[in-house]
């Protein structure tokens, strides 16, 4: 079944684009951090103003938290995210010369950056074979019978065993796009869904 799903998604979304707008690895990291509990569309509406205020780690570290928050106020958890963006940028400057480190451990040590955010940056910015699993992928993997994992961590482990490593980066995006277009959480018609 996993092979059939991979083939179908590969046909439907041969070169899946990164859905978050960014002009650098730092901006991608910020956008992924902001995307928690909101939509990519909403993040893309906020980031032009944010990246005008602070295009890089030095700019974000120097910016006032209130100004950062003003740029992202339409997003959920804006006060926390604004604090994290500043603290994360200060740590990037202090420990990594203002550059985003290409290591899961170093990324996960940054304020506000969890395993999923680090995984997205590793595969999309550094072309590493990570398989980021968010709530959408977790939901679809359960619906499709690919995991009975209770947590995203368990689902990630199961999917990594089911799919070849060379497909992980693309599959992460392909599953998200497929879920949005053909296999939504609500009002889903399994008869029309090519996987279900």
From TrEMBL:
One GO molecular-function entry: 4 iron, 4 sulfur cluster binding
InterPro entries xref list: DNA_glycosylase, Endonuclease-III-like_CS2, HhH-GPD_domain, HhH_base_excis_C, HhH_motif
Gene3D superfamilies, sorted: Helix-hairpin-Helix base-excision DNA repair enzymes (C-terminal) (1.10.1670.10), Hypothetical protein, domain 2 (1.10.340.30)
HhH-GPD domain sequence ranges: 34-181
Pfam families: HHH, HhH-GPD
Domain of life assignment: Eukaryota
Keyword Kinase found: no
Keywords linked to the UniProt accession: 4Fe-4S, DNA damage, DNA repair, Glycosidase, Hydrolase, Iron, Iron-sulfur, Metal-binding
One BP annotation, GO: base-excision repair, AP site formation
Protein family membership: Belongs to the Nth/MutY family.
Annotated protein name in UniProt: HhH-GPD domain-containing protein
Organism: Chlorella variabilis (Green alga)
């Amino acid at each position: 079944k996993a092979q059939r799903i991979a083939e179908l998604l590969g046909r439907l979304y041969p070169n899946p684009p990164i859905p978050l707008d960014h002009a650098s690895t730092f901006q991608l990291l910020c956008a992924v951090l902001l995307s928690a509990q909101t939509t990519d569309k909403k993040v893309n509406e906020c980031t032009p103003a944010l990246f005008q205020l602070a295009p890089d780690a030095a700019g974000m570290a120097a910016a006032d938290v209130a100004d950062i928050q003003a740029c992202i106020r339409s997003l959920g958890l804006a006060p926390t995210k604004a604090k994290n963006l500043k603290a994360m940028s200060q740590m990037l400057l202090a420990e990594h010369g203002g550059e985003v480190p290409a290591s899961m451990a170093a990324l996960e040590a940054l304020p506000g950056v969890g395993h999923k955010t680090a995984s997205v940056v590793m595969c999309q910015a550094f072309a590493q074979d990570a398989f980021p699993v968010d709530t959408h992928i977790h939901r679809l993997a359960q619906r499709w019978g690919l995991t009975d994992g209770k947590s995203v961590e368990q689902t990630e482990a199961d999917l990594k065993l089911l799919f070849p490593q060379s497909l992980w980066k693309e599959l992460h995006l392909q599953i998200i796009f497929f879920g949005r277009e053909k296999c939504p959480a609500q009002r889903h018609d399994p008869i029309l869904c090519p996987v279900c």
